[in-house]
Specification:
With 249 residues, the protein is of the alpha/beta class. It has helices at 14-23, 35-46, 60-70, 86-95, 110-118, 131-142, 150-160, 174-179, 187-197, 202-209, 213-226, 232-241, and strands at residues 7-8, 26-31, 51-57, 74-77, 100-105, 123-126, 147-148.
């Protein structure tokens, strides 16, 4: 029986799931408390050949249950919902490594943004974003990249790259402490990190350094692993914290 406010697509069966995985199709779960929004997003994404909307949910608790059962690649997650909200659901979904989460909300608020990132979300877009940006965002998150709407990227940098001083870590000492972490990187990895922090894509970095894109991907992955960073967002924050790049670079 289908629960109220949820919808499992018939194509979410194991046979179709295996076919989708082999074809490189991203399996997406849409979560929003408004039925019209769920329907609209599902129809918009459903026409994309590399995206398979496997179901939808009206609240966070149902989304968690469906993630455990269906194992989507990406969850398109609303923030404000009855019961378990999108932030709490994101923390559980990412904590159990069930799926990557792209937060989508009408509320352009710093607390939602930072709470979502701290909960493990890989991306954050506003509902008034261009439809093409949403589709591209799902692809980016699904393929392991972090995504922030351009209008919130600077706020992330300003807030996370300049935390208030504490007694244990005075502001004058923190950059030296964090900068020492870069000692584990090679010179080329440090250069790649700097270009990532400037907002360049892997392809643009490859052009800048005159190397193959596969080589850049290897360097980026190595940077994240050596520095114990979850994604490119954290890499950007670290680069600003240690002064590897500065606003306006």
């Amino acid at each position: 029986m289908t629960m109220p406010g949820t919808n499992d697509r018939p194509r979410a069966g194991s046979e179709h799931t295996d076919e989708a995985a082999r074809a490189g199709v991203l399996r997406v779960l849409v979560v929003d408390d408004q039925a019209l929004m769920r329907s609209g997003f599902s129809m918009m994404l459903g026409v994309e050949p590399d995206i398979d909307v496997i179901g939808d949910a009206a609240d966070g608790a149902t989304a968690i249950e469906m993630c455990r059962r269906l194992r989507p690649d990406v969850v398109l997650m609303d923030v404000q919902m009855p019961g378990t909200d999108g932030i709490a659901a994101t923390e559980i979904i990412t904590g159990e490594h069930l799926a990557k989460v792209l937060i989508l909300t009408t509320f352009d608020r710093d607390d939602y943004l930072f709470d979502a990132l701290q909960a493990g979300a890989s991306g954050f877009l506003l509902k008034n974003s261009d439809p093409d940006d949403l589709v591209d965002g799902i692809r980016a998150v699904g393929h392991g990249h972090a995504l922030l709407a351009p209008e919130v990227t600077r706020r992330v940098i300003e807030r996370l790259a300049a935390p208030p001083p504490t007694e244990d870590a005075p502001d004058a000492e923190r950059p030296r402490s964090r900068a020492s972490a870069l000692a584990v990187l090679t010179a080329r990895e440090t250069e790649v990190l700097r270009l990532v922090a400037r907002g360049l894509s892997n392809a643009e970095i490859a052009d800048e350094l005159v190397v193959g894109e596969a080589t850049v991907k290897t360097h980026v992955s190595s940077c994240l692993a050596k520095l114990h960073l979850r994604d490119r967002v954290q890499a950007v924050v670290l680069a600003y914290e240690v002064g590897l790049v500065h606003p306006g670079d």
